[in-house]
Amino acid sequence: MALPMVVVVLVFLGWPTMWTFVLSFTNMTVTGPAARHYHFIGFDNYRKLFASGSGLTDSIRRSLYYLVVSAYLGQAVFGFFLAMLMQRCSRALRAAVGAIVVVAWLIPEIVIAWMWFVLLSDGGTAQQATQALGLHYSSWLVTHPMLAVSLANSWRGVAFSYLLFSAALSDVPKDLIEAAKVDGAGGLRRLWRIILPLVSTTILIDLVLITLGTLNDFSLIYAMTGGGPGDASSVLSVFMYRQAFVTYQLAFGTAIAVVMLALGAVFAVIYIRILRRQGALNLAR
User: Fold this and answer.
1) Where do the structural domains in the chain lie, given as residue ranges?
2) What mean pLDDT value characterizes the chain?
3) In terms of CATH, what superfamily is 19-284?
4) What is the chain's Cα-based Rg?
């Protein structure tokens, strides 16, 4: 029964991944003689990539910043506390807030990039609003490009975390919370001792999914800043695109893609181990 799905995965995921790995050991380019008559060059692309001054270290640092700010803080943390806040509100207000948040999630990514570009660029909405208040504004797309794209990605993706946490929090037994209140447990203690342990599996699942999605994010950043100014917002995905399709070093770009794959795999393995440990703890309880 599983054979058709295994074949689909091997054809559409396994083969492209393997071919990317193979190309990273060649000198293939997009144009020129090496576009057709490429050959094996061993680890030359990786030596070039990991050499000082290649830009890899800075790109990884920006990718991790983007992951922490836009995924962990902007989506997971904010989505969790928004879901907690909505648990205390009326059903009508929860429905209204949920609809607004989900609409932001459903808007095409390129449209969101344009919206935030218009908001934060020179002469944009943010500048006009601050000037109306007599305040000075410098375009965040120039002065704080990583923060700008992180805010845009948080605004777009918080709905996913919000929906997951809303469902998980609705399953937390109300009588358990009331008993803790009777025993004198404050709000922070109830959160730490009762709520977080009960929804910990959902939190880990959310972190796995948003981590992999954020590390591979490209279109939002490239549409807003193009990786600039200069290389100021060039995360790994933008760095890979520039090397593969701007400078036409396709094989060098695939080597960067392999590094991205390895980085995502590291995070996935960490989360899977935590999930397994969490599952073992739940069984023990």
Assistant:
1) 19-284
2) 88
3) MetI-like (1.10.3720.10)
4) 23
- In the prediction, which pLDDT does 122 show? 84
Alpha-carbon distance of 35 to 37, in angstroms, equals 6
The runs of H, that is alpha helices, within 107-235 are 109-120, 125-132, 140-143, 145-170, 174-182, 187-190, 196-215, 219-224
- State the pTM of this model: 0.90
Gap between the Cα atoms of 159 and 180, Å rounded: 30
Which of these, 205, 207, 225, lies nearest to 62 by C-alpha position?
Answer: 225
Q: Which pLDDT value is given to residue 282?
A: 57
The whole-number pLDDT of residue 28 equals: 92
pLDDT digits (tens, 9 = 90+) for 245-258: 999 999 999 999 99
Map tokens 């181990």 to a residue: 273
Residue 2, class by beta-carbon neighbours within 10 Å (0-12 exposed, 13-18 middle, 19+ buried)?
exposed
pLDDT less than 50: residues of the chain:
283
Which whole-number Å values give the CA distances from 171 to 38, 83, 166, 185, in the listed order? 57, 13, 9, 20
pLDDT at 194: 84
Instruction: Tell me if 45 sits within 8 A of 252, measured CB to CB.
Output: yes
Distances (CA, A) of 239 to 59, 130, 257, 272: 7, 33, 10, 28
Task: Let me know if 98 is exposed, middle or buried by CB neighbors in 10 A (0-12, 13-18, 19+).
Answer: middle
How far apart are the C-alpha atoms of 143 and 128, rounded to whole Å? Answer: 17
